[in-house]
Amino acid sequence: MERIKVFAINTSPRKGRNTEQLLDEVLAGCLSMNTDGGVHVSTKLMGVCDAAAENFKMCRGCWACAKTGQCVCGDDFIKDVYDEIETADIVIFGVPVYFYSVSAQCKAIMDRALAYMPVGDGKITVSAITCGSAGVVSTLQAMQSFYSCHNFIDAGWVATYGKTSDKEKGKAVAYDLGRKAVRLASVVKSAVNGAEERGDDAMLKDLKHGNHFAYGTHTFPQKIRYEF
């Protein structure tokens, strides 16, 4: 039985509100695959609302990580987030729209990825976005650019306007998106396992392909990992 680990990060500073409610629906969809998906799914949810201010450090833009492979911010909440991402098969970002883009907390997590890249490594990702009025498209663009840069496989997105608790259709879409993400993760893992068994190096190389500029690609000193 395929084991699928799901990690969700709520980047809203408001605990238990719209973004977390939408994430709960996506996670419920993921867990439903334990019954009829032929896989074993485990989930974990973390929220920036639970991080103490002194344990949530902003990127300094110093580029020390590019030279040493280590972030000068040391061990903190964002480091814990990337530790969870490293071992997950599916990563779900819960993102509220703040002034037509991601929350400051979400952007801080994205900025700090420089020290750990590539963080996607063929993992499946999902966006769960909440919005009061407008800004979903520009927020989604920011998330999808992040996914592309870090070699995630984007399974899709769901967005709700206003109170998530009132959006039955939105919750149903979120639930189905969770199921889709698990199915896609299972397909990718099966493909990788099959290629390894056959010794199909060409397929493994294709599955591990990373997006980058064809020139001037920055090289990081830490080992580049391709684990699915």
From TrEMBL:
Span of domain NADPH-dependent FMN reductase-like: 4-152
Listed GO MF terms: oxidoreductase activity
Membrane-spanning segments: none
Keyword vocabulary terms for this entry: Flavoprotein, FMN
Pfam families cross-referenced by the UniProt entry: FMN_red
Keyword Transport: no
Keyword hit for Transcription: no
SUPFAM superfamilies: Flavoproteins (SSF52218)
Name assigned to this protein: Flavodoxin family protein
Organism: Lentihominibacter hominis
